[in-house]
Amino acid sequence: MEDVEPVVLLGFSDEHLNQLDRAFPATKITARGNRVKILGPESEVDAVKEILEEMIGLAKRNGQIQQSDLSTLLALANKTEGNDSAIWSPPEDPDIGDTILHTFTGEAITAKTPGQRAIVKASEQNDILFAIGPAGTGKTYTSVALAVRALKERKVKKIILARPAVEAGENLGFLPGDLKEKIDPYLRPLYDALEEMIEFDKLEFQLAKNIIEIAPLAYMRGRTLNNAFVILDEAQNATNTQMKMFLTRIGFNSRAIITGDVTQTDLPKRHQSGLVSIQKILQDIKGISFTYLDQNDVVRHKLVRDIIDAYEKFENKEDN
Question: Per residue in 280-292, pLDDT tens?
Answer without folding.
Answer: 999 889 999 999 9
